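Input.
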Amino acid sequence: MKKIFTLAAAALMAVMTTTNVQAQVTVDGQIQSAEIAGGGYQLLGSYTGDSGFGDWRMDRLYAGVMGRKLHIATVGALEGNGNAWTYFLNLPGGERGGVAAGQMLPRVENTPLSSPYIILPMRTTHAIIFQATTPMRATLIDYTTATPTMHALGEFAAGTVHTVPAGNPLSGARIVYGGTTNWLTHNGTAGLEMELDMDALNIPAGSRIEMFGAMTGNTGFLSRNTIPAFQSEGNFGNGTEAAPVNFSTLPLAPGNTMRFVSYAAFPTSTRLAERIEGTSVYPNPINTSARISYTLTKSENVSVKVYDLLGREVAVLANGVQQAGTNNVDFSVNDVQRGGYYLVRVQAGDSAKTHKVSVIK
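Output.
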């Protein structure tokens, strides 16, 4: 189990570090295809089974780093009875402390984590809880203190962007929930968006950030709806002190290849200077083959990779040092399945460009 866990985290990290640092995300509670195709958001995982909570679910989990802002987004629908989406985080820095991987998380009274006994396969420093009440409510749990500390992030109406006030550990963070209907009548884009300031969280440049998402009841009853997803014949429930819900030992559901999600935060320095100019993919749509062209401002180690829209690597077209000037790489449709959209990423050092391409069936 440990070997699968480690290899999967490394593989996902390879995908996430190709994020286009020029991409833009609008914090409005709608996760649009342009924000994904443009490289602003990367899909970290999805849940395809019965959520265990009727027509309410955490369907897809995304994240992206732009400058010194960490963006987290969930597409889905929350029932307005106090049920919650909970995001467990491992923020970098061993000096933070936190709950070690494989140890039971302390329960936190008066929150949706007041009743479950949970063990996670990663160190846990914080949890952000988004609760569907009237008005909406967001809470931060800090596990780095001797006794977990609860911080109220504020209450706000659905569709309204809320800014966490000064004096809070997440001061300046922006949160908005754009979903108001159940999954049966959902528009496929509405959900929760959070923009966190990495300076406020003291996250150093180039750090790894780990995350685990779960849908819980208003007192912490764990549904089977987690990202990543695990095999379960029903909801996980609360567990007990003697028999906690142990995600360190539970088998992953078919199609899930990771224990948690991990990616590297980009530094804010001159290293982000553009090293790629004038990228193009022609023709697009692609019938048999296309040429990817780009100009390097200096000799650089370059990778050209193709991903599906779930963020899975499907082809490596180039990987090695290339000289400054114009470079070309050919993309054959024999490398992918015909009929569908793909993301072509050209990365040189810390600069990356992403193109969405269509392959004709």
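Residues 1-22, 259-273 have pLDDT under 50 and may be disordered.
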